[in-house]
Amino acid sequence: MADNKKLTTAEILALARQQNSGGGADADDASESSTAPETSQAPVPTEDKKPAAAPKSTADILAAARTQGGEAEKPKPATAPGSTADILAAARAQGGGAQGGGAPKPKPAATAPKSTADILAAARAGGGSAAKAAPAASQPKVKKAEAAPVGDRPALKDMVAAVKEAQASGGPAKPKLPVGKPAPAKPKFPSKKEKVERRKFVATLAVLLLTPFVVAWSSMSAIAAIWSLGIARFMMPNMMLELPSKFKVGPPSDFPPGSVSAKFKASRGIWIINTDEYEGQGIIYALASVCTHLGCTPNWLEGEQKFKCPCHGSGFYITGVNFEGPAPRPLERVGISIADDGMLEVDKSVKFQEELGQWSDSKSYEVA
Ligand code: FES
Known about the structure:
With 368 residues, this protein is of the alpha+beta class. Helices cover 34% and strands 13% of the residues. The chain has helices spanning 9-20, 30-41, 58-72, 84-99, 116-127, 156-168, 192-209, 212-235, 265-268; strands at 246-250, 259-261, 270-275, 283-288, 299-301, 306-308, 315-316, 322-324, 333-338, 344-352, 366-367. The strands form two sheets. Strands 1, 2, 3, 4, 9, 10 and 11 form a seven-stranded antiparallel sheet that branches. The chain has a four-stranded antiparallel sheet with strand order 5-6-7-8, with no helix packed on it. Strand 5 (299-301) and strand 6 form a beta hairpin. Helix 1 (9-20) packs across helix 5 and helix 3 (58-72) crosses helix 4. The chain binds FE2/S2 (inorganic) cluster. Residues 291, 293-294, 296, 309, 311-312, 314, 325-327 line the site of FE2/S2 (inorganic) cluster.
């Protein structure tokens, strides 16, 4: 066929049937003319020119191919080829004969078609154009081992070479640790032997310290120490850190007649009074701010002109004489005098009691 159209399997089978049926020769079909020598080689009797019934199945076609191939070129084996390999070999031989027009081909056996696809390609070539391309078996095959590496992955032989090279150089290089801060030192825990020794030491120490002998001596030592401290304290004099009993309160002019000054009540515990209510004479004296009942500190009430004790309500006149409440006696005076510098000087170490007649003492007052 001059037509380069690719034959289908059905067409190939039809051609094979025609070929097997004696070549219902068509003068115009070049392919059939090319198959003519094959048919001429087959010892088909002339009286059997009548075309036999065309094989209809693939098995029939293969049987015809066996017969044709065996009779055309090869000596028929003792037993008919029964395997598919034999059938394919016969088909290959047939295809090769069809291409070359019946002439023996110098092609090496390696170029013969080996697969079913090759056989079909050869059949197409034989049934179609003789000038068609060579069968697929004759096309150069790509070696699988030489396939290009996939992606960036190195070839297998390269990896094997790299491994061998690393082994020859003493093994793969160890990964370098990152350079930075040194790792913190691990805490050192005591070993089992050290723990046992420590426990033995503690147990021995406890036994030694808890013996009756040690306990007794320890208790006696503690008691002796306490007694020693008590004796030392007894040997020391009792002292009170307080202000001196004598102190100056200022010039007499600071205390006008009929006044009660509480300026030194908080710091010194006295009132400075200038009055003439006691025996009609104007005098300046100092009263202790201590209630004669139970020792509380009375307050001077300017409006009522009296001293009033907040504890039990005792009341005292400006002169210090008690007149109400539980207080049993008048307030006490302290010593007062004019110092060399003209200042009033109070002496709290000296006290004067009215019920004892001591207020008549000149040291208990100063004439205003
Ligand atoms: Fe002042 Fe009792 S203490 S009245």
